[in-house]
Design a protein that fits this description.
By secondary structure, the protein is of the alpha+beta class. The chain has one domain. Helix content is 45%, strand content 17%. The protein contains four helices and four strands; from the N terminus they run αααβββαβ. The radius of gyration is 33 Å and the shape is rod-shaped. The model has no long low-confidence stretch (mean pLDDT 86).
């Protein structure tokens, strides 16, 4: 062999790696610590989003149930057969609430009120559907229970969330003139 062909440095062996710089090994430990600090806050945030989304789903379902109930009340359905009653309207609203959950259906308070004519100021007459051309209101009240795990986690961070959030939906309509209006 020629002397000029012999290399002073051997060819690198791919199986042998040079040692990692000192700072790189410490980086893995700090990433785990950062994750341990951020993960609980991230999970709390996600649980809050899920709870608010569920509360909005129930609120929209309550609005749909109220709309169906007030439409039935204002239509005068059952006048001809003398079956028009507040309990008929409450049954209709509760059947719509059952689609949300049995807990909502059982915990909801349904009220029906009416006012003479088209003026609906004041308290109205509770438990009355009113006559033709009167104003009728159907209202649903429900105390939404927040997630217990969310409440516990908020307590760890020094915050608090009410155990229940009151939801209320109502709608008013003029009764159809199924008879002459006074």
């Amino acid at each position: 062999m020629n002397a000029h062909m012999i290399s002073a440095h051997p060819a690198p062996n791919p199986a042998i790696r040079p040692p990692a710089p000192r700072g790189r090994a410490d980086c893995r430990g700090s990433t785990a610590v950062e994750m341990a600090l951020v993960l609980p806050v991230l999970l709390l945030f996600i649980m809050g989003i899920i709870d608010v989304a569920n509360m909005m789903r129930i609120s929209l379902g309550m609005q749909h149930a109220v709309r169906m109930g007030v439409a039935m009340a204002a239509s005068g359905q059952g006048v001809d057969t003398d079956t028009r009653s507040v309990s008929l309207i409450e049954t209709e609203v509760r059947s719509e609430l059952t689609a949300l959950s049995e807990q909502v259906e059982q915990g909801a308070v349904v009220t029906v009120s009416s006012w003479p004519g088209s003026v609906s100021s004041g308290d109205g007459t509770a438990g009355n559907l009113g006559g033709p051309c009167d104003t009728v209101e159907v209202r649903v009240d429900y105390d939404y229970p927040t997630l217990a795990a969310f409440n516990a986690a908020m307590g760890l961070f020094g915050g608090s969330v009410p155990l229940t959030i009151p939801l209320s939906r109502s709608e008013k309509r003029l009764n159809e003139p199924w008879a002459s209006c006074n």
